[in-house]
Amino acid sequence: MVLDEVLEQVRSFDCTLVEITGGEPLLQEETPELCRRLLAEGFEVMVETGGHRDISGLPGDVKVVLDIKCPGSTEENKNNWSNLERLGPNGEVKFVIADRADYEWAREVVVSRNLTTRFTVLFAPVFGELEYKELASWILEDRLAIRFQVQLHKHIWDPARRGV
Q: Residues 70-119: pLDDT tens digits?
């Protein structure tokens, strides 16, 4: 699909917010241009990225949701920590947490890097692996100033479905 077709489809939804996500949107070299064009048409634009690609090519008005990979993902070594310096004040930092070890690791990253004073921070349990109540209780016990998030798309559609 070329950019003009993507823009046409987005316009057909009659919405004001567009979130570009799924897989890794920054692997598509057209993503920054798509963002620029959407912004120029008055859309609010969000990009949810896996955190391993440099976000500096995105326009400044894009709200970036930066996923920091926890050790349980086995992708922790791919985190591009420099992105935390590139992230604007409207950015969000997300951790998807599989277990208590991931939680403690994420909590340490949040505290040591002072993330809650700089960004909105999200903690989400890995779907089907960590009970919502368990993660919520840890957050409350530690009085973390973060937002609890669920992978809503996995509740609406089949969790294995792609492209939603």
A: 999 999 999 999 999 999 988 999 999 999 999 999 999 999 999 999 99
3-state secondary structure of 22: coil
Residue 100 and residue 51: Cα distance in Å, rounded?
22
Lateral strand order in the sheet of 44-49 = 17-20, 44-49, 63-68, 92-97, 120-125, 147-148
Structural domain count of the chain:
1
- With respect to residue 18, please indicate whether it lies within any of the assigned structural domains: yes
164 lies in some domain: no
Structure tokens at 145: 């100033």
C-alpha angle 24-80-1 in degrees, rounded to nearest 5: 20
For residues 29 and 6, the answer to whether their CB atoms sit within 8 Å is no
CA distances from 125 to 39, 93, 104, 150 (A): 32, 14, 13, 7
Is 109 part of any domain? yes
The CATH number given to whatever domain includes residue 85 is: 3.80.30.10
- 129-147: pLDDT as tens digits: 999 999 999 999 999 999 9
Q: Which domain holds residue 16?
A: 3-156
